[in-house]
């Protein structure tokens, strides 16, 4: 997986800049689309980074209305439009029956410069080994009523996503808080858990990865759901994600949501052990596993 920004990130970036140009022109969305070959809903979705204009001509018409006349600026925004309409890196990896909201999440995650993770019951997905991920899917398969193919494709995609952490070229910064009960929760057999602990120790040694253990105590704050904060950089909005009880993926860059998730993560970091403690604790867990 390349380190350069992906199509979803380009769409988010283009939408952000178009919104700034519209505000500079002191136009509402309704005023901006008046007489245009697209409607309010289209411009709203373009500004939010959910879609691209169908035609380059539509973008140029909008820029003309906003008073953007500099040829270099127009060419740059047109290039963003073209890149945003290209295929995502995961096309062909195996995305059959993706959860609702997953396409958007994958695009944002692929553009992240830093990712902060927490899960209250299992090891976060991007830190999972292939065996652990397979065991998680087998465990939840009868509950979620998913197929074996769905599980295989999901694990394949997850392993591909993990490459962003370990790649040589500009790896993503990873900051994970590992909840003690989640680490102790047996997924699969003893070999699966030993391999997973060993992988976490290996990841913790990377310069771009910080892993902290959150002990199970009465005084520490613990989030009741998974927390995923993706810092995009380059003027793009920080975005948060969590799974829902309805088998969907919720993604938001609203400042209120980002602020809440950030406070949750910071509170758990405050109650967690320092990173240097992590390998020692994982070694202890591995020794306690019985065959």
Write the layout of secondary structure elements.
Layout: H1 7-24, H2 29-33, H3 40-47, H4 56-65, H5 71-84, H6 102-111, E1 114-119, H7 130-144, H8 148-166, E2 173-179, H9 180-184, H10 190-204, E3 209-214, E4 227-231, E5 239-243, E6 249-252, H11 255-271, H12 278-288
Helix pairs in contact: 1-5, 4-5, 7-8, 10-12
Q: What does it look like?
A:
This protein has 291 residues and is α/β, with parallel strands linked by helices. The chain has two domains: 7-84, lambda repressor-like DNA-binding domains (434 Repressor (Amino-terminal Domain)), CATH 1.10.260; 102-288, Endonuclease, Chain A. It is built from twelve helices and six strands. A six-stranded mixed β-sheet has the order 3-2-1-4-5-6, sandwiched between helices. α10 (190-204) packs antiparallel against α12. The two termini are 37 Å apart. The model has no long low-confidence stretch (mean pLDDT 87).
Concise structural overview:
The chain has helices spanning 7-24, 29-33, 40-47, 56-65, 71-84, 102-111, 130-144, 148-166, 180-184, 190-204, 255-271, 278-288, and strands at residues 114-119, 173-179, 209-214, 227-231, 239-243, 249-252. It is of the alpha/beta class.
